[in-house]
Amino acid sequence: MVSSEGLCCSPPTIAAPVTQYGVTKPISVAGPTEADILRSRVLERFLVEAGLYESKEEASKREEVLGRIQEIVTNWVKQLTRLRGYTDQMVEDANAAIFTFGSYRLGVHGPGSDIDTLCVGPSYVNREEDFFFVLHNILAEREEVTELQPVPDAHVPVMKFKFSGIPIDLLYASISHLVVPHDLDISDMSVLNNVDEPTVRSLNGCRVADQILKLVPNVEHFCTTLRCLKLWAKRRGVYSNVTGFLGGVNWALLVARICQLYPNAVPSMLVSRFFRVYTQWRWPNPVMLCAIEDGLGFSVWDPRKNPRDRTHHMPIITPAYPCMNSSYNVSTSTLRVMMEQFQYGNSICEKIELNRAKWSALFEPYLFFQSYTNYLQVDILAADADDLRAWKGWVESRLRQLTLMIERDTYGKLQCHPYPQEYVDASKPSAHCAFFMGLQRKQGEIIQEGQQFDIRGSVDEFRHSINMYMFWKPGMEIYVYHVRRKQLPAYVHPDVYKCSRNLWLTPHQQSYKLPCNNGVAYQTDSGEKCLKRKNDSGGENSEQRRLVKQRSPDRNQPGSSGIISCKLSSTSTSCSTSDLDEMNGFAGANASSNSCGIVSCSHEDIGNESTAGSSEGSNGGYDNPSCSQSDSCDDLNSYVEDEHANRKKAFQDGLLKELEPNTMVGAVLKSMNGVVDAESAQNPLIRHVFVEFGIIKREMR
């Protein structure tokens, strides 16, 4: 029989449903421990000391500048309304609205950062003439406006300038209203009625920023974590959308997704989980904050319907309609670099959780110029600073294409690492800057000895794309070099040459401390391959050694040794010994511009050493000065390590389930490799630029 006590027992407690943020349930709803809270305070203190927060004075100045821009655009719309014959009442009611997006709207901007701004105007004020000509002229006449640069042919048309020293990126969107309401809700889908694609893209920035702030569980924790990850990405050289890495909105979406998966976590936990999750993320599965919606007929990201979407390597989908892939610029090479950096960050965060490292270790700068043996150097020159600003923007936007071309033409065997930072030689008075790309052979490739990379067609195709610049002026030129690490110009981070330890590199990058292979292949005019042997101190090969040897270029003379000024012709199919002398610096700075150099680069020459070094130590080479001497750290209690291991196992169990392909979007197909351009491959004139010692003067006109 059942006792009366059993009958009167209270029913079992039903657990409250877990709040779901995003397209899946959270991985963990656990809150922070005291140690997590302490680490978050230390992290926030570090970010303040790093100068990521602006002063109250600068914040007030930004608000003042935005107010003055609002006044300017309102008067501009009223002026156009009057000129087009509208009534006095229409002129009085005419209005334009200013919205912000990007880092300023998200609350993660810092000192000196720009303000992404959108001007919304009525239907009769257009972008092509009214914005880029009339408003441009109004701004040009104001003393507060400097460095005014319109970019009407950009994917998102923009006008860049500084207003009282504050950088402004101003976009324009004309909506289907005769009068723009003062309380316009830009998140409402009705603003997209009867507008064109450029207008949709212009509106998308503000709409995405608003949605992000609505979809994260804790805005304050999101902002702190995003500040941290943006600083980390800049220090590690992976913050640049234009060169194929990730920009501000991409990092914001990645961080927002982590906030959804760990809704009760504090910033220190979110940073650690960020690296753990994305180290194991199965790309090209998309990162999404919400389900993709369809509505007004605009194209949305859907690999089932759009073949181009299937080629995206790292889809990060915007949450506002129409949902787009914000990271379509990512290539296989840049994805590889970012995954290596995620692994680096994960390793450091594990040590931080075990009190074996400090936060400063996470933000150690990436030693790009110690990571590779071979580099491409792209020098950009112009007549003055204004021309350089426009010319550099155009060339920089095309550097990603050079990476894709090299990957395509070498079938992915030669990998490029474009570095997003620009460099300037302060000793030169001319307007110029330089960008660099690291070159390495693809890991694990089985390649025959002496087989050569040929990127002549890739470089020539890149030149043709650069020549399409419609605002070209005399003096705008571009030079492409191949340089070795020891030949890098002195103005690139001199401190890297003083560092004797390669402590912050990923495992395969540590191997670049090793010397090159014994053989360096080059080609004489007879086509015979010669080898430079390290153990050959004289004898028959001494002349060959002299020909192959290349002197470091003169830092002050762009036309000095190491530079080949090459004019292509149908008869330029080989080079003599004297040509090789000139190419390698023996003829000095006055080498003939008509000389031609055919020098090939073997697989042994690029990336041969990348197969070694991965077994140096059990920590994968992630040590750094702040934590490399682990023996000096205090001994940890055993329960700390046990707790860490248990938490990591629980995390992985939940993470693997979360990382399965998202059924809401459908099966995301794997990325497809590009094909070689047959037209370029058949053109004999463009097959004339080798990577080894190659620097080509590209004549713009």
Radius of gyration: 28 Å
Main sheet: strands, sense, barrel: 5 strands, mixed
Separation, N- and C-terminal Cα atoms: 101 Å
| Mean pLDDT across all amino acids | 75
- Give the strand order of the largest sheet, numbering strands 1, 2, ... along the chain: 1-2-5-4-3
Number of helices, counting only DSSP H or I runs of 4 residues or more: 19
Q: Please estimate the helix content.
A: 25-40%
Structural class: alpha+beta
**Percentage of β-strand residues:** 5-15%
Name the shape in a single word: globular
Low-confidence stretches: 1-15, 496-644, 656-701
Compute the number of strand runs.
14
Write the SSE topology.
Layout: H1 4-7, H2 34-49, H3 56-83, H4 88-93, E1 97-101, H5 102-106, E2 115-121, H6 127-140, E3 145-151, E4 158-163, E5 166-174, H7 197-215, H8 219-235, H9 248-261, H10 267-280, H11 332-353, H12 359-362, E6 374-382, H13 385-409, E7 414-423, E8 431-441, E9 452-453, H14 456-466, E10 477-484, H15 507-510, E11 522-523, E12 529-530, H16 542-548, H17 577-583, E13 601-602, H18 638-658, H19 678-682, E14 696-698
Parallel strand pairs: 2-5
Antiparallel strand pairs: 1-2, 3-4, 4-5, 6-8, 6-10, 7-8, 9-13, 10-14, 11-12
Characteristics:
701 residues, alpha+beta, five-stranded antiparallel beta sheet, disordered N terminus
Structural summary, described in words:
There is one protein chain. The chain has 701 residues and is α+β, with helices and mostly antiparallel strands. It contains 19 helices and 14 strands. The strands form four sheets. Strands 1-2-5-4-3 form a five-stranded mixed sheet, with helices on both faces. A hairpin with a 6-residue loop joins strand 3 and strand 4. The longest helix has 28 residues, at 56-83.
